[in-house]
Prior knowledge:
By secondary structure, the protein is of the alpha+beta class. The protein is built from 7 helices and 8 strands. It has helices at residues 2-13, 15-18, 70-74, 84-90, 96-103, 133-136, 140-153; strands at 28-31, 34-40, 44-49, 78-80, 110-117, 122-130, 156-158, 167-173. The strands form 2 sheets. It has a 6-stranded antiparallel beta sheet, covered by helices on one side. Strands 4-7 form a two-stranded antiparallel ribbon. Helix 4 runs antiparallel to helix 7. The protein starts with a helix and ends in a 36-residue tail after the last strand.
Amino acid sequence: MKRVVFLLSVLLSTFDVHSQNPYVDATTVTADGITFEVDFSTYVFYLSNIANSRSEIPLYYKDGRKLKTEAEYRVLHANYANRNDVYRAFKGVLSDDVIKAFREERRSPIKVCYTISSEGETLEVAFIMQTHPLILSLPPETFATLEKRLKQYVKWEPNEYAKEVSYFHMSGMIDFKKIPLSSAPDSIEKPDSVSDKKDREWNLPVLEK
């Protein structure tokens, strides 16, 4: 019951905003110099900077050869240089009420897709999200800020195979329980002792025959 009351209070506070949802009938939205392509469906929507040019496959080795087999894609791997940098990128961008509401969800409503250089830099990001009322209440400026901060903060440690390609892709769900609240500035948790794999998902391609 407490969860229902809390969610209702947050939703009511943002009703005027999401009643004028900028995403449902749009093909693009623009904020802070970034234009996002919008792909909206009943349950999920996708935001990607129209300047992104490396999200497609196939991928290529630095010598120009094309990756042709699923096995070649499967060995591409990287660990976060510091997983907490993802949470730092989100800190202060979303309100504490929104973060608390997302913490109550069974599944994270936001997935971030990364394009990563062989040197471990985040080159591009895109967002795949549930059509959750609180997500739809967030203005495009929120995602423009998150894109800039994720590119700035999130670094990677590519394995030997990933260092041989021009760039590669990874993605991960956002764990809102690990995003520090603005009211608790020192609440970033220490990295877990287990592998980062549990917080990441592979985007394996469908290869042409």
